Amino acid sequence: MIGRKFLVLAAFVAAAAAHAQMPMRPPAFIGGIPGLAQMQAMFNQRHQSRTALYREALEELRKNPQAADVAECPAGPRPAGLVCLQRPPEQSAAASPVAAQMPAPAPAAAAGAAQPAPAVPRVPPDRPARRLALLVGNNTYQTPIPPLETPVADVDEVARVLRARLGFEVRVLHNAGKPQIIEAINDIAREVGPEDSVLLLYAGHGYLMDDTRMGFWIPIDGSVKSPANWISNTDISKLLKAIPARQVILISDSCFSGSLTKEQKPATRSGKLDPAQIRKQRSVLAFSSGDEEPVSDEGKDGHSIFAYNLIKTLETTQGVSTGYDIYRIVHDGVTKDYPQQPQYGVVVSAGHVAGGEFLFETARP
Questions:
Q1: Which of 18, 70, 88, 148 would you call most buried, defined as having the most Cβ atoms within 10 angstroms of its Cβ?
Q2: Mean pLDDT in the chain?
Q3: What's the pLDDT at 11?
Q4: In this predicted model, what pLDDT tens digit does every residue of 91-145 receive, in sequence order?
């Protein structure tokens, strides 16, 4: 068995080395999941190949670290087709810098359009006024960025569980570009209020720069030659800050997504959980599929290993659970089979208040 695993690994590494400018996703494992050391070697090889692939875009970022950033929306009406970052609710109405010009979002019927959500279970008045989720799953990328196999299936199944068991209104984006992702998050920021609960999930390509430690999502319109259509952690934090809901969580299933959780770890909680008290304070949490390593898109039942464990955990949770409770179960499930370390942290730059937590609450009939 070990010999067969080694041959699979050796074949992949040789292929990746020969095609460093266009890394391909390896076939499903023959003979089962390799050992942890073999998996880590394979992940490292993938990162080296992706670094070579993104070389031109990375060189531009080293010259201009803000090359991927988008400016805040200007005060007043926005020109048609202008994509910008929604300004935080506490910010004054003073004019903001001119936003970066980007293509207009695709029409509702095109790829990347949010799909209408079916009716959700009634949420009693003692729960958050509204629970809203935005899930982004990106499979298809521009050549030579390799496609992914599981994100679309992952977000569709997470959406089902969030609607059926947790009472969320869910919006799903399949194969979305940078304008669609930013505008969809802006829409949520404009719609929700302090009493609401918001969950964001991104599944797709990502990258972490080795020298600056800056992380990025790479949407389907991302290029290997320019970072203009990448989404930086800086902008992700600003997008979270603009959401006025007191309950906010970002779940990221992408390479090097652990960089989003590094600002601060959540405080250890003791004593009986008091959901009513927690809802009174601003809570912004980040939950990632891995630390500062490439994450695996091989998994179980057609899902990434992270998504598989997240789905199973949400399907069995009962009553009120904190984000940390969910994280611990998912973490243990992932690390049992893979050298991948899911992470959980608070996003202070987006307004998180000490002691805050995100609450997962099963819907009552």
A1: 70
A2: 81
A3: 41
A4: 433 333 333 444 444 444 444 555 554 444 344 444 558 999 999 999 999 999 9
Kindly give, in sequence order, each residue whose CB lies less than 8 Å from that of residue 346, ignoring residues fewer than 6 positions away.
Answer: 263, 264, 265, 266, 283, 284, 285, 286, 352, 356
Please, are residues 147 and 86 in contact by the beta-carbon 8 Å criterion?
A: no
Say what the pLDDT of residue 112 is. Answer: 54
Q: How far apart are CA 363 and CA 162, in angstroms?
A: 10
Angstrom distance (rounded) from CA 67 to CA 231: 10
Residue 11 to residues 17, 42, 148, 340: CA-CA distances in angstroms?
10, 11, 20, 22
Residue 30 C-alpha from the chain's centroid: 29
Summarised one tens digit per residue, pLDDT across range 314-361 is 999 999 999 999 999 999 999 998 888 899 999 999 999 988 999 999
Helix axes 178-191, 233-241, angle to 10 degrees: 20
State yes or no: pLDDT of 176 exceeds 80.
yes
